[in-house]
Design a protein that fits this description.
By secondary structure, the chain is α+β, with helices and mostly antiparallel strands. The chain has helices at 7-22, 71-82, 85-91, 104-109, 120-127, 135-150, 158-166, 169-180, 188-199, 205-216, 234-244, 250-256, 293-306, and strands at 45-50, 55-59, 65-66, 202-203, 261-263, 268-273, 277-282. The strands form two sheets. It has a five-stranded antiparallel β-sheet. A two-stranded antiparallel ribbon has the order 3-4. It binds glutamic acid. Glutamic acid (GLU) binds at residues 68-69, 101-102, 120, 164, 171, 199, 264-265, 290.
């Protein structure tokens, strides 16, 4: 990874990538949740928030979309604050999945049924691990946690929430099926309600990049200087993102982009470059995997121009001591 990033290089890359990708016209906005179909497909914004709290931005960085599956990252963080990593591995798992994010078949075929915290089954089960005496207090924990990552109070779109609740039979079915396998840890209806609410939180590219930057910055929000997450769990969260953050595209993403990421069907996409910055793109039209079409193209281009791919380390031998002799 490039050790010589400068503000000029970052600004230049942002401008060039934005101009190039803006022309791309592929993808369709999600419509299986009726409210999502009403979003403006032209929204396109990119933001980078560095570990020093510096913000680089271009395009529609203030336009909001529903966070949808990106919320799963932060609910995983919340569950990790209440339980330890081994508990999450045991109760949820870290299996990758080659089937769609809400697949019943994947749930049935997988040994642990929950699969991982980012497919719907595992994500709803992860929400069921968040502590709280009532549904309201579980939601408060999840919402406060997202607010801390964003450094501001994020609003819920009641319209999106209601629209998804009305058409939520599939997620409810996944949750009951998990319960039948003994893999659900709280009340089904209440948890699905909270899970649906977390996906209806409205975010813009600046919010998302700020949230991602906390994971790049050892768990401290670089814009508020507040610790929002335990440093020791960050490798677990990032490796889980790498394994399944962009649905069935995750394998190819590792090859082409090579940074931990998570997308949502609202059109947001975040990436974390550890020790450097968080990146977010918002553009609602999705590709066939459910990832923002422009988002994927943007990350591909940014990774190439700024040399961000963690698998592209220079072949210079790092195994040398002070005397430049190989260990
Ligand atoms: N709330 C959406 C669902 O459960 C999230 C899907 C996504 O963004 O992948 O279907």
């Amino acid at each position: 990874m490039s050790k010589s990033l400068t503000p000029e290089k970052i600004n230049d890359a942002l401008n060039k990538v934005y101009d190039k990708v803006k022309k791309k016209k592929t993808g369709k906005v999600a419509s299986y949740i009726p409210e999502l179909a009403k979003v403006d497909p032209k929204i396109y914004g990119i933001v980078i928030v560095t570990c020093c709290g510096k913000v680089y931005k271009i395009g529609d960085f203030k336009k909001t979309v529903a966070i949808e599956s990106i919320a799963k990252v932060f609910t995983l963080c919340m569950a990790l604050q209440h339980h330890n990593k081994d508990h999450i591995i045991d109760k949820i798992g870290t299996q990758t999945s080659f089937l769609p994010f809400n697949s019943v078949l994947a749930l049935r075929l997988s040994d642990n049924h929950t699969i991982n915290p980012f497919v719907n089954a595992g994500a709803i089960a992860t929400a069921s691990l968040v502590k709280g005496k009532t549904k309201k207090s579980v939601w408060k924990n999840i919402h406060d946690n997202m607010n801390n990552f964003a450094g501001k109070k994020l609003k819920v779109s009641e319209k999106t929430y209601k629209s998804e609740m009305k058409t939520n039979e599939h997620n409810v079915a996944l949750a009951y099926l998990l319960k039948s396998y003994g893999k659900f840890y709280n009340d089904v209806e209440d948890t699905v309600d909270v899970y649906t609410r977390q996906g209806s939180v409205m975010v813009n590219a600046l919010d998302l990049a700020t949230m991602a930057s906390c994971l790049a910055n050892d768990g401290v929000n670089p814009r508020t200087n507040k610790r929002v997450f335990k440093k020791k769990y960050i490798p677990f969260v990032l490796s889980t993102m790498l394994g399944g953050g962009v649905y069935e595209y995750s394998g190819r993403w590792m090859n082409e982009v090579g940074i931990p990421a998570k997308s949502g069907v609202g059109g947001g996409l975040i990436g974390v470059v550890p020790g450097k910055f968080g990146i977010a793109v918002v553009s609602p039209p999705l590709d066939k995997h459910g990832n923002s079409s422009k988002g994927v193209a943007t990350f591909r281009e940014l990774s190439r121009r700024l040399d961000l791919n963690m698998f592209h380390e220079k072949a210079e031998c790092q195994m040398k001591n002070k005397n430049r002799k190989c260990i």
